[in-house]
Design goal:
It is a single chain. The protein is mostly beta strands and 327 residues long. The protein is 7% helix and 38% strand. The protein has three helices and 17 strands.
Length: 327
């Protein structure tokens, strides 16, 4: 299932719980020395990268799947949309008139991998099958020479600071114990104790409850989402039950959390010298990359719409809670 942020937590209550400020960290603290880096200077060179059919591409333009008559657009091969079982190519060459009007791709693109930077060769422009529940295509240029584990953002420049890509690789919600005091993670325990005392988290009988910690390690710090979610209600009708949740997102240094105002579901971070310098969010519909400074303040780097599909096919939460009557 494709990822999409559909978090429905109580934002006002979260602020009251202190999630808008540092937990056990009234000041940002020391990130541990090292060379500072400002990726904002590379904003003009930032480019979105997508992966389709196990292959990375430099994204150029999304093709709207439907024409004015409600039928798939003619530019999308019919076998991408009619359910045909015949052999169907994953890509086709882009028409010459399309190539002429699109920005000329660079010959190479600096991509970011888990082990560092890599100069990928940029191929010819192709129309790539990117269908999900609905047909769609994307004009993109194949990236070769750097493998498939690449960040959703690359740079049309060679003077890029040493970066590494740290994607989210696993999400493992666990049952929430009856008492938050039983949680072993000290920061989650502190947050959950406050959250679970809120009126919105105590609407009747608890039918399910989870805690989730999602983190990637930059070396000197981690980027983290911590959340608690409960399914609750006294009615015999499950459709009258409700899901309530709280979460905190930020830079974690030991048992301190410096808040960063991004969605609780994110894709990964760019790191430099053991520190988080940018966070990537909003997959699969957008590539949103924002710089992160020492105090958790965000700055713009890249924001591009790269995909569309039926939203019902892209719903997901990190809570692990099943909703009896949908959303």
């Amino acid at each position: 299932m494709q990822r999409r942020d559909l978090w429905f937590g109580l934002m006002a209550a979260m602020a009251a719980a202190g999630c808008g400020g540092a937990t056990k960290a009234a000041t940002p603290g020391n990130r541990g020395g090292g060379e500072a880096v400002d990726l904002a200077t590379l904003a003009d060179a930032a480019r979105p990268v997508i992966v389709a059919h196990g292959q990375p591409y430099l994204y150029l333009e999304f093709v709207e799947p439907w024409g004015a008559d409600g039928e798939p657009t003619a530019v999308i091969p019919s076998c991408w949309s009619d359910g045909s079982e015949e052999a169907c190519p994953a890509t086709v060459p882009a028409p010459a008139d399309v190539v002429a009007r699109l920005p000329t791709p660079p010959a190479t693109l600096t991509v970011v991998t888990p082990t560092g930077l890599c100069q990928a060769t940029v191929g010819p422009v192709e129309l790539v099958d990117t269908h999900g529940c609905e047909p769609s295509g994307t004009y993109a240029a194949r990236l070769t020479g750097c493998g498939t584990a690449v960040a959703p953002i690359g740079f049309a420049a060679t003077d890029v600071p040493t970066l590494a890509w740290r994607p989210v690789t696993s999400v493992a919600p666990t049952p929430l114990p009856a008492s938050a005091a039983a949680l072993t993670d000290p920061l989650l325990r502190e947050l959950a104790t406050t959250w679970l005392a809120m009126p919105g988290m105590n609407h009747g009988q608890r039918h399910d409850a989870t805690s989730t910690v999602v983190e990637v390690d930059a070396g000197r710090e981690r980027f983290s989402t911590l959340m608690v979610t409960v399914l609750q209600g006294d009615s015999a009708d499950q459709c009258d039950w409700e899901v309530a949740g709280q979460h905190a997102v930020g830079l974690r240094r030991g048992d301190q959390l410096i808040p960063v105002e991004v969605p609780d579901i994110w894709d990964g971070v760019l790191t430099h010298d053991g520190r988080v310098v940018a966070v990537v969010t909003d997959a699969p519909f957008r590539v949103v990359a924002q710089t992160v400074d020492d105090a958790g303040k965000l700055g713009p780097l890249l924001d591009v719409h790269v995909w569309s599909d039926n939203e019902e096919c892209t719903q997901q939460s990190w809570s692990g809670i099943e909703y009896p009557c949908g959303l």
